C-alpha cells in the first residue's frame, strides 16, 4: 500500500532552536520544501498560513479551495493536503504542536477556536482587502519573535499565537455566522465523538454505538451535532468512512473490492451503493476522474 507521507515538525529547519514551533516567510518556506508541498501529505502538527499574494488551489481532504490574497488556511494534525500555484505566492506560515500552545494556558484549548473544533468546519477564512495589512503585521511579529534571541521567547510566541487565533476567530465568525462558538461541553462531546469515530469507523457504523460509548442518548448526541455542525451522527460517521475510501482509492494500490473490505463492507455492491449515495458518484468513476 502506498503511504501518504506524514511530516513531523522536527523535520523542518529550526534556526530558532524550538522543536515544537516553526515560522517562516511563505516564499522561503516553499522554496526550502519544494520537493513535497505540491504532493499529498499530512502533518502531525497544527498549521496556519496567510497568503498576501498569489493564486492557485489548496486541496484539503479532497475539498478544493482557491488561493488568493487574504486567504488564511488552518490545518489540524492528520489532514491530507497539497498546494498548486498559478502565480508566485507570498505571505507567512507558522505551525506548532498542541502541547506548545496549551502548556501556556490553563483555560484555553485549541479546539475552542471555531476553525479547529471540528474537521467539518471550513479550514479557511478570507480576510477582506482592507484588513490584510493588520493580519499580515501579526504574522510578521510572530515570525520576527521566532527568529529573535530574547528572554521569555516561548511565552511571547504563545501570547502572540493566542492573540492571532482570537482575531482570526472573530473574522471567521463574522464571515461564517453559523459556525459561531458554542458551549464547551458540546465541543468536548464533538471532539470525543470524532476521536471515537477515528478509532472504530471501520467496524462500527451505528449512531447508537457512539452514543453509548459517550454515555449519552442517541437523541442528545444528534442534538449536539445539529447545534454544532447541522448534521446527524449517521452523516458524520458516513463522511469519515467516505473520506478514508477516497484516500485509499487515490493513495494506495488496493483494488476497490479490497478497499470495501478494509472499510468493513463484505459486499462490494453495497459499498458502491453507499459511496454513490454519499459522494454522488460511483467508486470507479471517482477513481478514474481523480486519476
UniProtKB/TrEMBL annotation:
One annotated GO molecular function: DNA-binding transcription factor activity
Claim: Transcription regulation is one of the keywords in the record: yes
Annotated HTH araC/xylS-type domain residues: 191-289
SMART domains membership: HTH_ARAC (SM00342)
Keyword DNA-binding attributed: yes
Matching InterPro entries: AraC-bd, Homeodomain-like_sf, HTH-like, HTH_AraC, RmlC-like_jellyroll, Tscrpt_reg_AraC-type_HTH
Taxonomy, superkingdom: Bacteria
Alphabetically ordered keywords of this record: DNA-binding, Transcription, Transcription regulation
UniProt cross-references to PANTHER family, sorted A to Z: ARAC-FAMILY TRANSCRIPTIONAL REGULATOR (PTHR43280), TRANSCRIPTIONAL REGULATORY PROTEIN (PTHR43280:SF32)
Name used for this protein in its record: AraC-type DNA-binding protein
Organism the protein comes from: Arenibacter palladensis
